[in-house]
Design a protein that fits this description.
It contains 19 helices and 7 strands. The protein starts with a helix and ends in an 18-residue tail after the last helix. Strands 3-5-4 form a 3-stranded mixed β-sheet, with helices on one face. Strands 1-2 form a two-stranded antiparallel sheet. Strands 6-7 form a two-stranded antiparallel ribbon. The chain is about 55% helix and about 5% strand. It is mostly helical. Strand 6 and strand 7 form a beta hairpin. About 25% of the residues are buried. Helix 5 packs across helix 6 and helix 9 packs across helix 15. The chain folds into 3 domains: about 120 residues, no CATH class; about 80 residues, no CATH class; about 250 residues, Collagenase (Catalytic Domain), CATH 3.40.390. The mean pLDDT is about 95. It binds zinc ion (ZN). Zinc ion binds next to helix 13 and helix 15. GO terms for molecular function: metal ion binding; metalloendopeptidase activity. Belongs to the peptidase M13 family. Its cofactor is Zn(2+). It comes from Medioppia subpectinata. InterPro entries: MetalloPept_cat_dom_sf, Peptidase_M13, Peptidase_M13_C, Peptidase_M13_dom_2, Peptidase_M13_N.
Length: about 475
């Protein structure tokens, strides 16, 4: 196992860090399996893919096209494998590594000694054993493997009929606010600005859940071929993997399905897909503390409105902006505007890199996309709320809280990030996660906001109202 660990370390050493893999235009390499074989000859790619696609009988030849993100990694990987295969003693390490990789992914389905051992690792990495009550484990696990079947039960129980309409209206309000701000952005040229507006208009959305889950015939079709046994947890997990693989490989040669959901309905999260130019908000996030029909609009716009603005802004972050309104990756911005955009990116990178937890600094490059989305989202939602206020009778202030509506907007935003974390988990997050730690998602965005400083009357040149502010959208 020591040798396996050493092998894994070597893999880590040749892996290109995430902050150097953000530019999709430069990481996109479409090549044939024949060309891949030249870069990485240690692996017989044609027979590998023939085997992988065996279950659906799809023919694979050396002319098959494939997209790889790091040719450098592939050739270093090849060298590493060949170095081991040349040596009789080292040969077995590769086999053990592959065996271990399979065992590791299955530990949660294995007997107690395996699960106990993985707790020790988890404790070291995350600072907690992650022991949760059995009901919670079971619900989470079921959501992971059959999220749409579970989602049907979830939405029937808690997703109110008018929530979808409410979300739709709010998305339009935030989108309009985002577009209305485009003419104020002096760094953009007219042509790129017009295309950006068209891209914002072309963003499609999916809200709550896909309709098919409420139709039991269609829901059954979704899981057709998946056979689960009541008392065989391990085999069930193998079956789920086999089923998911088969479903995925069947997508080859087909047009992209733009109505497919990447998150299940109960998920408390949202996402933007650049290749589909689409934002998605599962039912799980369309509830308190993000949204409630009985909340003041200030809190709803501050929480849910900012989430919507965040996902929308992803269409225009360092990665999203490389895709056009149809989801195609190619340059559609003027060179001069790209340069000005990059200057603005540098401002955010420098700002967030200064934030630290102990000796660990936030990686400003790794988190740039999320930070841009947070900042753009806050501005769009704030402007959307102001526009809503101008069209509706005055919203009554919240009794017992000595805050104005516009101040409440910022409180609503900050409150969804109230959280706690072990030092170990925080360290791991700073190292791997594209999101900044929660506290900096609040401090970073609010200290860039002129409106925040104005509403809370922050003195100039203070921590939350620095003179230098980073603004892009
Ligand atoms: Zn995001």
């Amino acid at each position: 196992m020591k040798n396996v660990l050493e092998f894994e370390k070597r893999l880590a050493q040749i892996t290109i860090p995430a902050d150097q893999r953000r530019d999709d235009e430069s990481t996109y390499h479409k090549i044939t399996l024949k060309e891949l074989k030249m870069k990485c000859k240690a692996i017989d790619w044609v027979s590998y893919y023939r085997r992988a696609f065996g279950p659906i009988g799809r023919e694979i030849t050396e002319n098959e096209q494939i997209v790889i993100y790091s040719p450098q990694y592939m050739s270093n990987l090849s060298d590493l494998i060949e170095e081991h295969l040349r040596d009789e003693q080292k040969k077995i390490v590769v086999a053990n590594y592959l065996g271990w990789s399979v065992v590791q992914t299955m530990t949660s389905c294995l007997a107690k000694p395996f699960r106990e051992a993985s707790k020790i690792l988890r404790k070291a990495l995350m600072g907690s054993e992650g022991t949760e009550s059995p009901w919670r484990y079971c619900v989470t696990d079921t959501n992971g493997v059959m999220g749409f079947a579970l989602g049907a039960m979830f939405v029937k129980a808690v997703f109110h009929g008018d929530s979808k309409l409410m979300a739709q209206t709010m998305i339009e309000e935030v989108r309009d606010a985002f577009k209305s701000n485009l003419p104020n952005l002096k760094w953009m040229d007219e042509h790129t600005r017009q295309l950006a507006k068209e891209k914002a208009d072309a963003i499609t959305d999916m809200i709550g859940f896909p309709d098919f889950i409420l139709d039991s015939t269609k829901l059954n079709q979704k899981y057709e071929g998946l056979i689960l046994e009541e008392n065989d947890y391990f085999t069930n997990n193998i079956e789920v993997n086999r089923f998911a693989l088969r479903r995925n490989i069947q997508k080859i040669d087909k047009m992209a399905n733009k109505s497919e959901w990447e998150m299940s309905p109960p998920t408390v999260n949202a996402y933007y897909t650049p290749t589909k130019n689409q934002i998605v908000f599962p039912a799980g996030i369309l509830q308190a503390p993000f949204y409630d029909v009985n909340y003041p609009k200030s809190l709803n716009f501050g929480a849910m409105g900012v989430v919507m603005g965040h996902e929308l802004s992803h269409a225009f972050d360092d990665q999203g902006r490389e895709y056009d309104k149809s989801g195609n990756l190619h340059q559609w911005w003027k060179n001069s505007t790209i340069r000005k955009f990059e200057e603005r990116m540098k401002c955010f990178v420098d700002q967030y890199t200064k934030y630290n937890v102990g000796s660990d600094h936030v990686n400003g490059k790794q988190t740039i996309g999320e930070n841009v989305a947070d900042n753009g989202g806050l501005t769009a939602a704030y402007n959307a709320y102001k526009s809503w206020l101008s069209k509706h009778p005055t919203e009554l202030p919240l009794p017992g809280v000595n805050l104005t509506n516009l101040q409440l907007f910022f409180v609503g935003f900050s409150q969804v990030w109230c959280s706690t974390s072990t030092p170990e988990a925080l360290k791991l997050q700073i190292m791997n996660d594209p999101h900044s730690p929660a506290q900096f998602r609040v401090i970073g965005t609010l200290s860039n906001s002129y409106e925040f400083a104005q509403q809370f009357k922050c003195s100039p040149n203070t921590r939350m109202n620095p003179e230098k502010k980073c603004v892009v959208w």
